[in-house]
Structure formats: C-alpha cells, structure tokens
TrEMBL record:
Similarity-based family: Belongs to the DadA oxidoreductase family.
GO cellular component: cytoplasm; plasma membrane
Highest taxon, organism lineage: Bacteria
GO-annotated biological processes: D-alanine catabolic process
Protein name per Swiss-Prot or TrEMBL: SardH
Gene encoding the protein: sardH
Organism the protein comes from: Pantoea ananatis (strain LMG 20103)
GO MF annotations, alphabetized: D-amino-acid dehydrogenase activity
Annotated ranges, domain FAD dependent oxidoreductase: 19-412
Length: 442
C-alpha cells in the first residue's frame, strides 16, 4: 500500500455465532464494534483487507465541527467529545489534538455564508469566530490579501494511521473479535430477516449485521435489492518531509488544505479536486446526483472512463456465497495519486509560505471517498430486511464524525435512546419521488 498504518493482530478464535457482525474495518466500523463491545454485546468485525487500509487511513486527518452540514453538526459535536475520551478509555494515543481549524477566503460570499452558518450553528451548540481581513492575515501569516476567515479553536486533528487501529485494538480489549483478509461475501437470511453472514471462511450466525463498507457498501447492498445511492470520488493527498511549523493545526484556503502532523511534517490536499469513474453504479444513480453536480461543491470534479467500469466497487455483476466475491479480488483499493496535483500542491504550499522552501514530498497517495447525493451519510436499518443496518456514504466526513457515528450505530442497533435524531440519515430520503436536498456545506 502507498499509505502506512499501524498493524492490528487478528483475534485468535473464529466465531460460529455472535450477536452482531460489523462489515468493514474503517473508523465507522471499528467505532461501532468498540461501542457495542463496551455495552457487552458479542460482536465480530470482518475486514476484506486490513484495518484502515482504505479511506479511513487515507483522509486528511481533520476533526472538525466548523462548516458541517447542519444536519450533521450534532453528530460532529458528539464525536469531538468521544475523540476527547477515547485515548483515555483505550489507553493509546490516537494523535488527537484540539489545535483549531482556520479557514481563509478571498471571497465576500464565503464570509456571508460562514456568518449565516455560524448563527445557525450557535443554536445547536457550536461557536466559532468570524475573522476580519486583518485578523485572517495575522492568523494565516502569509502575504495574501485575505478578505477574512473563520476560526474554530475547539476543532482538532488526529493521525488516521494510528487512530483507527487503536480503536480496533480497544474494541478487542473489550471482547470484540476482528478478522482481516476475510471478506463477507453474502448475508444469510432466514424467514425474511438477517440470520448471519457468509464469509470466505464460512458461515457466522448473527441476528444483526451492519454494513460499514465505505466505497463497497452500495455494491454489497444491491445484491439484496437495497438501493444505496453512492458515488465514489477519487482524491489525491501527500505528506511532506519534516518542515518548520507554519500551521499548528489545520488550515483551509481556496488553494490548499494543510494539517500539521505529530511527526513535524504536513498532510496537504487541494480542495475540491477529484475524479469520478464512469461505471454502472454512477450511471444508475446519475439522476440523484444531478443537483450536487450542479452545485459549487462539484465544480472541480472530472469524469473518466477506465477499467473500473468492469471491476471494483462500482461495477455490476452478482456472485454467490460459495464463490470468491469482488471483495476478495481487490483486498485494498490503492489507486495511483495524481502527480500533477502533488507537484502543483507543493509549489503552492511554498508560494504561500516561503519559510517552507526546500520542503519535499515524502510520499503521496489517493483514496476513494464514498459520497451520497446530499453529502450526508446513511445510518439506518433496512426496512425490507430486518436486522440489516447500514452506516455508509460519509462523503469525506467519516474520520471526524466516525466515533460519534459508531456510538449512534450502537445505540440504534441495541434499541437504546439515541443522542441525536436519526431522520436526516434515513435511507428513505433517497426514495423515488423525494426531493433530494442540495448540499449545504462540504
């Protein structure tokens, strides 16, 4: 793999029966397994590749509440609380630091939008600081003529490569079992409801199953007539060599997004740039994504045609539980980064901050971001198959809100009171005839 993540050892005893099976070893899957195990629920997590091998280990490492879709904000607030608590609970450093997130803009329209959002967010329980041109200039520290910005001191950052594996290990310490390189091929359904899963190592009985498969979730669900509208967007990111500290936490500008890492380097990405592969899944859901593609958030996306039309998470085709599945054929999605974005991004970083002259690219990577038409995840039980749950479509927000999502999933699956309304996350909002809400924020 092009990324480096901490390793997790598989559990020793393969189960024949558990209360809950979690499909997928990203931050939502591991957090769900952790919260269920904390409740004393018997839970096993299956990952076709390795823990944090796909997007949960490839994201920017931002942990923010600022500029969230307001429907997501309560989950983001609760997630920050869980980020605060998890290192102590687990006894391992997740790399989480509340070092603040700063946005700068050259556009008065952004300032107006942030001001309006801030007024609405304050009613939900989050407060940030709108910056004048002078204040933005002082905080960012470069020579750009900024029109202003917004500063959220209670937001933070974490290290994806260590946080997700640490949560997985924490779940194991509470009694959860984890098996990597073991794909779930199919559901086992009896009398119309979930009764277990078929893995490549055999049948495991369970009364509840939750699909946290990220880019692969929609293809898995379609085998059972479950329509989960998703588009996977390819993004490129790079890590610099160690460099002087010009940003303590995270910085977003129209040209760059930067996070200071614990090792003294930076994670850098160019906001908005991405690619979508023309594939059967995208064609199937094109009409549902039309409002998003018309919006500002999708203006920099490019569409390409390549081999993913015939293989990968967005291809078509069926399989049975006793034959190898698409999930075994591609253990880890490890796409090639766009070198043009990497080279341009490094040049822009040094242009903005001349003190970083001489900084090099350590390594670069790319990842597939599973995205819904309104950029809000699906967290729901499937009506037509009782016992089947989905937590997917986190639209690039999953790392930050993963701990809160895991808590919400655990509460939902055990019929406990949930800490926030589930209505914004219902799968039924994408049913035929429903108007799909245009995304508010990224």
């Amino acid at each position: 793999m092009r990324i480096k993540v901490d390793s997790v050892n598989d559990s020793s005893v393969f189960p024949t029966s558990v209360d809950v099976v979690v499909i997928g070893g990203g931050i939502v899957g591991t957090s769900t397994a952790y919260e269920l195990a904390k409740q004393g629920v018997s839970v096993t997590l299956f990952e076709k590749g390795v823990i944090a091998g796909e997007q949960s280990g490839r994201n920017w490492g931002w942990v923010r509440q600022q500029n969230r879709d307001l429907h997501e904000l309560p989950m983001a607030i609760r997630s920050l609380q869980r980020w605060d608590e998890l290192s102590t609970e687990i006894g391992m450093d997740l790399g989480f630091r509340r070092s603040g997130i700063l946005y700068g803009t050259l556009n008065d329209a952004d300032l107006a939008r942030w001001e309006k959002w801030g007024q609405q967010a304050k009613q939900i329980g989050f407060t940030s600081q709108l910056l004048s041109a002078r204040e933005a200039q002082e905080r960012i520290g470069d020579k750009t003529a900024w029109r202003g910005g917004v500063w959220s001191p209670t937001d933070g950052r974490a290290e994806p490569s260590q946080a997700v594996p640490a949560i997985a290990k924490g779940a194991q310490n509470l009694g959860a079992s984890i098996f990597q390189r073991c794909a779930v091929r199919a559901l086992d359904i009896s009398a119309g409801r979930v009764s277990g899963v078929w893995t490549e190592r055999g049948l495991v009985k369970a009364s509840r199953v939750i699909c946290c498969g990220g880019a692969w979730s929609s293809r898995f669900c379609r085998q059972y007539g479950i329509e989960l509208p998703a588009a996977n967007i390819l993004g490129t990111v790079f890590k610099t060599t160690a460099a002087p500290e010009i940003v303590k936490g995270c910085l977003s500008t129209p040209q760059l997004c930067v996070r200071r890492r614990l090792d003294g380097s930076y994670t850098v990405a160019v906001p908005g740039l991405g690619q979508i592969d023309l594939a059967p899944q995208n064609i199937r859901y094109a009409a549902k994504f039309y409002p998003m593609f018309r919006s500002k958030v999708a203006k920099k996306l490019k569409i390409r045609l390549n081999g993913s039309f015939f293989s990968g998470p967005e291809a078509s085709g069926s399989w049975s539980h006793d034959t190898p599945s698409p999930f075994e054929k591609i253990r880890v999605l490890d796409p090639t980064p766009d070198n043009r974005i990497v080279n341009d991004g490094l040049a822009e970083l040094i242009r903005l901050f001349p003190a970083l002259e001489g900084t090099k690219v350590d390594y670069a990577w790319a990842g597939w971001i599973d995205t819904t038409p309104d950029l809000v995840p699906v967290i729901d039980e499937v009506n037509q198959i009782p016992g089947m749950f989905i937590a997917s479509g986190f639209s690039g927000h999953g790392f930050a809100i993963g701990p809160g999502a895991g808590l919400l999933c655990a509460q939902m699956m055990t019929n406990k009171p949930v800490y926030t309304d589930l209505a914004p996350y219902r799968l039924s909002r994408f049913d035929k005839g429903n108007v799909i809400r245009q995304p508010q924020m990224m």
